């Protein structure tokens, strides 16, 4: 759950800064604003889903607010200084998320974690079958994280080549 709290920040910060830049310069973003905001929304849905599963206590919710506040400001500053670096770091964070969800799936398979029914929010969002389980949810969330990893490494590569994101069409409509 804590991982998903910070995972929604990079897409929101990147999308917001590109949005403001687009407004200042009167130019299109090549779809990148939408792609990054879709990523942020998708990560928010991960959090909402796992909050249904984990049922966090008040102090865990307070920790979420504190961690998110610190990470938002740090990432915002990092993105202003170097979008290339910010997207690369995000790509690596997404790789760690993939690893974490792979371990989660192993624990589900080993019976260390109960494979409970999927929350209704997950069934609706990912259009899972009505009898979906936590394993099904973790599987689709891990696929989302792989997509986010690829998008962010791609964005960093664009910057590395000395181009702006708007010069290369964004990968849209994943969901």
From TrEMBL:
<feature type="binding site">
    <location>
        <position position="4"/>
    </location>
    <ligand>
        <name>Fe cation 1</name>
    </ligand>
</feature>
<dbReference type="GO" id="GO:0106292">
    <property type="term" value="F:superoxide-generating NADPH oxidase activity"/>
</dbReference>
<comment type="similarity">
    <text>Belongs to the alternative oxidase family.</text>
</comment>
<feature type="binding site">
    <location>
        <position position="43"/>
    </location>
    <ligand>
        <name>Fe cation 1</name>
    </ligand>
</feature>
<keyword id="KW-0679">Respiratory chain</keyword>
<dbReference type="GO" id="GO:0098803">
    <property type="term" value="C:respiratory chain complex"/>
</dbReference>
<keyword id="KW-0408">Iron</keyword>
<keyword id="KW-1133">Transmembrane helix</keyword>
<dbReference type="InterPro" id="IPR038659">
    <property type="entry name" value="AOX_sf"/>
</dbReference>
<keyword id="KW-0812">Transmembrane</keyword>
<keyword id="KW-0560">Oxidoreductase</keyword>
<feature type="binding site">
    <location>
        <position position="145"/>
    </location>
    <ligand>
        <name>Fe cation 1</name>
    </ligand>
</feature>
<feature type="binding site">
    <location>
        <position position="94"/>
    </location>
    <ligand>
        <name>Fe cation 2</name>
    </ligand>
</feature>
<protein>
    <recommendedName>
        <fullName>Ubiquinol oxidase</fullName>
        <ecNumber>1.10.3.11</ecNumber>
    </recommendedName>
</protein>
<dbReference type="GO" id="GO:0046872">
    <property type="term" value="F:metal ion binding"/>
</dbReference>
<dbReference type="InterPro" id="IPR002680">
    <property type="entry name" value="AOX"/>
</dbReference>
<feature type="binding site">
    <location>
        <position position="43"/>
    </location>
    <ligand>
        <name>Fe cation 2</name>
    </ligand>
</feature>
<dbReference type="GO" id="GO:0010230">
    <property type="term" value="P:alternative respiration"/>
</dbReference>
<keyword id="KW-0813">Transport</keyword>
<dbReference type="Pfam" id="PF01786">
    <property type="entry name" value="AOX"/>
</dbReference>
<feature type="binding site">
    <location>
        <position position="145"/>
    </location>
    <ligand>
        <name>Fe cation 2</name>
    </ligand>
</feature>
<dbReference type="GO" id="GO:0005743">
    <property type="term" value="C:mitochondrial inner membrane"/>
</dbReference>
<keyword id="KW-0249">Electron transport</keyword>
<keyword id="KW-0472">Membrane</keyword>
<feature type="binding site">
    <location>
        <position position="46"/>
    </location>
    <ligand>
        <name>Fe cation 1</name>
    </ligand>
</feature>
<comment type="subunit">
    <text>Homodimer; disulfide-linked.</text>
</comment>
<feature type="binding site">
    <location>
        <position position="148"/>
    </location>
    <ligand>
        <name>Fe cation 2</name>
    </ligand>
</feature>
<keyword id="KW-0479">Metal-binding</keyword>
<dbReference type="GO" id="GO:0009916">
    <property type="term" value="F:alternative oxidase activity"/>
</dbReference>
<dbReference type="GO" id="GO:0102721">
    <property type="term" value="F:ubiquinol:oxygen oxidoreductase activity"/>
</dbReference>
């Amino acid at each position: 759950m804590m991982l998903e709290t910070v995972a929604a920040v990079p897409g929101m910060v990147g999308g917001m800064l590109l949005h403001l830049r687009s407004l200042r310069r009167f130019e299109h973003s090549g779809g990148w604003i939408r792609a990054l905001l879709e990523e942020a929304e998708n990560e928010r849905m991960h959090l909402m889903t796992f909050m249904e599963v984990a049922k966090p206590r008040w102090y865990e919710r307070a920790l979420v607010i504190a961690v998110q506040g610190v990470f938002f400001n740090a990432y915002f500053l990092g993105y202003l200084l170097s979008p290339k670096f910010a997207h690369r770091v995000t790509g690596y964070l997404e790789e760690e998320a993939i690893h974490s969800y792979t371990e989660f799936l192993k624990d589900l398979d080993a019976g260390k974690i109960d494979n409970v029914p999927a929350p209704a929010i997950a069934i609706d969002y990912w259009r899972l079958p009505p009898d979906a389980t936590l394993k099904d949810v973790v599987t689709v969330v891990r696929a989302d994280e792989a997509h986010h990893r690829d998008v962010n490494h791609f964005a960093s590569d664009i910057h590395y080549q000395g181009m702006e994101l708007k010069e290369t069409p964004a990968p849209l409509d994943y969901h």
